[in-house]
Amino acid sequence: MPNNKKFILIVGATGAAAKRLVDVLLTDKNYHLIGLSRKSNKSLGNRSNYSDINIDLLDENSVLEGLKKIPKITHIFYTARAKHEEGGFESIPENSLMFKNLLLGVDRHLANLQHIHLVQGGKYYGIHLGPYPTPAIEDDTRPKIDNFYYVQEDMLKKFQVGKAWTWSASRPNVICDFSTDRARNLSYLIGLYALVMKEMGLPLYFPGNEGNWNALTEVTDAHHYAKAMIHIATNKSCMNQAFNVSNGDIFRWKRIWPFFAEYFSMKVGEVRPLNLFNFMRDKEDMLDALRIRNNLSECPSDFARKSWAFADFVFAQNYDVISSTTKIRLSGFNDLVDSKNMFITHFNEYRKNKVIP
């Protein structure tokens, strides 16, 4: 076995931040991946350099017994989050306990560990609370709020003192992807909303508010984010630091919404604020008929039912949402993604896979 072989543990391997990370890492035979989750990732099938381990992070004994079985781990990507509802607030006790249990297991069983990478997000800067200083910079003073990101980061720094391993963190915002098993995805939700409006014979009205329509904002392509995480976790210049990650551009919805209307062969509508969670409640029969008529491979109403609150959360932000990506660029990661083209690419993938007509 080559000396540069890395054994990667991806904690929360079936989540939004991890799926493309797994895909990218699997292309390099110098990496052997172990996906940690409560259930196996059956979509990967039999891969010589991937295996699953089922661990309940809320159960200390489950974590300790599980990590004892994988002592070769050199790198950890922590992408897990406790179950939560939409609206911005997530459980501090549960997220803290999950991470603490992992670190206890690291201390006891992972003597070969070199690095832990922690996934955070834009809520680190308080974007879920209202207007905040933009562009957000990694060293900005934390808002005076309770946030599990702060607890986890402080815990990680404390555990790392005196250890040979290093840490890093990344802060994406609104991860977007083509995914047939994750509806909490802005690309899919915009596409499905467009289909409903078209089916009703209406223009593509913008469902957010006027402030959101005009504000500058950002998103993060999942594949781009995966490459950024690997860059951060494997470059010495990035050790023991946090980095913002987004597509690297900013946009206004009013500038790219007309392209979405054109894609779906619709007229562009004006701003008409909607609570999408409530608006979509009675659209299931319409969507089922749409699925049958177009021979779609997924039932859109079942797939997205619980995810409209996420779209409402994004479209309610009537202020700029911008994170500076200067720091990660100066570290040598210069990849950029055109956000408008990203959405169109995702729409194309959903259409190709017959999830939308």
Name a few traits of the molecule.
alpha/beta, seven-stranded parallel beta sheet, two-stranded parallel ribbon, single chain, Rossmann fold, 13 strands
Could you give the topology of this structure?
Layout lengths: L5 E6 L7 H7 L5 E7 L12 E5 L5 H9 L6 E4 L13 H18 L5 E5 L28 H13 L5 E6 L3 E2 L9 H14 L4 E3 L3 H5 L1 E2 L2 E2 H13 L6 E4 L6 E2 H11 L4 E4 L4 H4 L4 H11 L5 H5 L3 H8 L10 H5 L8 H14 L5
Parallel strand pairs: 1-2, 1-4, 2-3, 4-5, 5-6, 6-11, 7-10, 8-13
Antiparallel strand pairs: 9-12
Overview of the molecule:
The chain is an alpha/beta fold and 357 residues long. It has 2 domains: 6-173 and 220-244, 3-Layer(aba) Sandwich (Rossmann fold), CATH 3.40.50; 175-219 and 250-323 and 331-352, NAD(P)-binding Rossmann-like Domain (Rossmann fold). It has 14 helices and 13 strands. The protein has helices at 19-25, 60-68, 92-109, 148-160, 186-199, 210-214, 222-234, 253-263, 276-279, 284-294, 300-304, 308-315, 326-330, 339-352; strands at residues 6-11, 31-37, 50-54, 75-78, 115-119, 166-171, 175-176, 204-206, 216-217, 220-221, 241-244, 251-252, 268-271. The strands form 4 sheets. A 7-stranded parallel sheet has the order 3-2-1-4-5-6-11, sandwiched between helices. The protein has a two-stranded parallel sheet with strand order 7-10. Strand 1, helix 1 (19-25) and strand 2 form a beta-alpha-beta unit. Helix 1 (19-25) crosses helix 7 and helix 3 packs parallel to helix 4 (148-160). The protein is globular. The mean pLDDT is 92.
